[in-house]
């Protein structure tokens, strides 16, 4: 109970600090402007206007949410350590685990708020052009949140031990790798299948494929949360897919945070 | 009954730089602070005062030796329930107001509701803080105001043990007087105070006992009279000057 109270108070403070910062507002305004701009893109595109608005705006929610998670996550953690506000905080009867979990939850609330505001923007844009706000659009908007929850867990992990720049670079790397890992695995398998007998790839292809599969399972499967195509084509996603992938995000974030806590417990605050 | 602070053969090494080169900061220091004391911890810059204090506050991990605060290992969360801590040059969340900050820290110390409000008012009065600036954002605070809020957050829960790292540094004479008075009031209400300071006249005035640390080793420990007598000097400043002259080649 005490752990929950500590984490709750730190989460509340973290959220309050984040919403009083300027960066989330800048990212939010740029994202809203881009969402509105998608109407123009729809006019210029050879595709249907509603199709363009849906696919572009869902991607904007994901990318701007990523920036929020990285800027706010890395920024707040680094500020705690470099400005030494953490010294006063950790000298209270607060465990280091409660500190990290509280920070994570506070920042996750900011990310959730961002997703909600941009989803509402998408609904308004769709309504203004007479488009349909179907289940698939709501599902696609929802799936961005578990994706960002995983990214945020990584930013917390990286920023406990690295500088702002390194943490940000690592976070971008994880975002790209997480989105591309499935595609890369498919390419490796394809290359193995079409390789000629006696070639290096045919000889060692199985080994390379096994390594690629290992890396694929280790990296966060962020591609699972990209449902912009389904939203654009108004294809409803099965409830079980949403459930299992939400559970995957909770489990993956939990493991990353547990690792962060393990590293953080040994850290010296000079 | 356990002592307020018990340090035995404490060693600490820092690792820094790309090659993680070692720099030893503490060389087996030992000291005991009894409950009810005002204990001054003095020494030149880089002597190991802040390192010792950060180990006591659970911010640094020791290499070896044993450390107990109020009978508990400082790496345990529960050891800090009855501890109040003010870091050297405290920094706070500058987007918060002083009141919000105290409410946050009070909550983390287990206070809530009317008791928390009551303690905030009590602590602000004790550190002689103006009620009108407490609702302003911390980024607008002067050094003296920050130090007062820092001391207020450390004492909100009326801790049994108060550890203060340079509580009077950077303060004007009135600020120093207010902090000194606050320390004396808390002591009279039953708190044990362990603090470091460069202002040796204050240390001589309020400390029951003093420890002098030089280059990571305790050189003297005792009452001000005992230390000055032992070193055949008139004041702590003279003792410190003598010790530092011995150390510097």
What order do the helices and strands come in, and which of them pair?
The complex is a heterodimer of chains A (270) and B (249).
Chain A: H1 2-19, H2 23-44, H3 49-82, H4 85-90, H5 96-128, H6 135-161, H7 164-194, H8 200-218, H9 228-232, H10 239-265
Helix pairs in contact in A: 1-5, 2-3, 2-5, 3-5, 3-6, 3-7, 5-6, 5-10, 6-7, 6-10, 7-8
Chain B: E1 5-16, E2 21-33, E3 38-42, H1 49-56, E4 64-69, E5 83-86, H2 98-108, H3 113-126, H4 143-155, E6 161-165, H5 173-188, E7 192-196, H6 200-206, E8 209-214, E9 217-222, H7 224-231, H8 236-247
Parallel strand pairs in B: 3-7, 3-8, 5-6, 6-7
Antiparallel strand pairs in B: 1-2, 1-4, 8-9
Helix pairs in contact in B: 2-3, 3-4
Explain what the structure shows.
The complex is a heterodimer of chains A (270) and B (249). Chain A has 270 residues and is mainly α. Chain A has one domain. Helices cover 82% and strands 0% of the residues of chain A. Chain A has helices spanning 2-19, 23-44, 49-82, 85-90, 96-128, 135-161, 164-194, 200-218, 228-232, 239-265. The longest helix of chain A has 34 residues, at 49-82. By secondary structure, chain B is an alpha/beta fold. Chain B has eight helices and nine strands. Chain B has helices at 49-56, 98-108, 113-126, 143-155, 173-188, 200-206, 224-231, 236-247; strands at residues 5-16, 21-33, 38-42, 64-69, 83-86, 161-165, 192-196, 209-214, 217-222. In chain B, strand 6 (161-165), helix 5 and strand 7 form a beta-alpha-beta unit. Classes of the chains: A mainly alpha (270), B alpha/beta (249). Chains A and B meet through helix 1 and helix 4 of A and strand 5 and helix 2 of B.
């Amino acid at each position: 109970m005490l752990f929950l109270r500590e984490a709750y108070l730190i989460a509340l403070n973290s959220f309050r600090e984040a919403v009083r910062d300027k960066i989330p507002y800048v990212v939010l305004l740029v994202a809203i402007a881009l969402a509105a701009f998608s109407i123009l893109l729809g006019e210029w595109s050879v595709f249907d206007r509603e199709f363009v608005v849906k696919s572009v705006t869902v991607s904007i929610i994901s990318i701007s949410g990523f920036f929020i998670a990285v800027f706010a996550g890395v920024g707040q953690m680094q500020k705690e350590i470099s400005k030494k506000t953490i010294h006063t905080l950790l000298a209270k009867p607060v465990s280091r685990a409660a500190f990290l979990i509280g920070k994570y939850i506070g920042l996750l609330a900011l990310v959730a708020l961002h997703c909600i505001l941009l989803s509402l923007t998408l609904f308004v844009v769709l309504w203004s052009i007479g488009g349909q706000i179907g289940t698939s659009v709501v599902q696609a908007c929802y799936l961005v949140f578990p994706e960002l929850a995983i990214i945020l867990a990584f930013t917390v992990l990286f920023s406990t031990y690295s500088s702002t720049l390194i943490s940000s670079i690592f976070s971008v790397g994880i975002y790209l790798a997480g989105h591309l890992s499935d595609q890369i695995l498919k390419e490796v398998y394809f290359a193995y299948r079409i390789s000629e007998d006696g070639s290096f790839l045919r000889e060692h292809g199985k080994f390379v494929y096994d390594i690629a599969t290992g890396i694929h399972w280790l990296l966060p499967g962020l591609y699972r949360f990209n449902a912009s195509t389904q939203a654009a084509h108004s294809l409803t996603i099965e409830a079980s897919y949403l459930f299992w992938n939400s559970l995957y995000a909770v489990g993956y974030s939990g493991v990353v945070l547990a690792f962060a806590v393990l590293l953080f417990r040994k850290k010296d605050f000079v | 009954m356990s002592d307020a602070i018990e340090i035995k053969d404490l060693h600490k090494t820092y690792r820094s730089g790309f090659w993680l080169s070692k720099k030893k900061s503490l060389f087996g220091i030992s000291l005991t602070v009894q409950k009810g004391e005002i204990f001054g911890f003095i020494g030149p810059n880089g002597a190991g005062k802040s390192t010792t204090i950060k180990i006591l506050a659970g911010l640094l991990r020791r290499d070896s030796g044993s450390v107990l605060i109020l009978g508990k290992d400082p790496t345990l969360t529960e050891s800090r329930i009855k501890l109040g801590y003010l870091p050297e040059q405290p920094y706070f969340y500058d987007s918060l107001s002083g009141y919000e900050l105290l409410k946050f820290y009070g909550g983390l110390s287990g206070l809530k509701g009317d008791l928390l409000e009551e303690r905030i008012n009590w602590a602000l009065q004790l550190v002689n803080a103006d009620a009108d600036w407490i609702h302003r954002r911390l980024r607008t605070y002067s050094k003296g105001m920050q130090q007062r809020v820092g001391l207020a957050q450390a004492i909100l829960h009326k801790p049994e043990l108060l550890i203060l790292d340079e509580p009077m540094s950077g303060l004007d004479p009135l600020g120093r007087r207010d902090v000194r008075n606050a320390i004396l009031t808390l002591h009279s209400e039953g708190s044990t105070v362990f603090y470091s300071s460069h202002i040796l006249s204050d240390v001589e005035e309020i400390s029951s006992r003093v420890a002098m640390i030089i280059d990571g080793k305790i050189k003297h420990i005792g009452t001000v009279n005992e230390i000055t007598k032992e070193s055949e000097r008139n004041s702590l400043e003279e003792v410190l000057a003598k010790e530092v002259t011995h150390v510097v080649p």
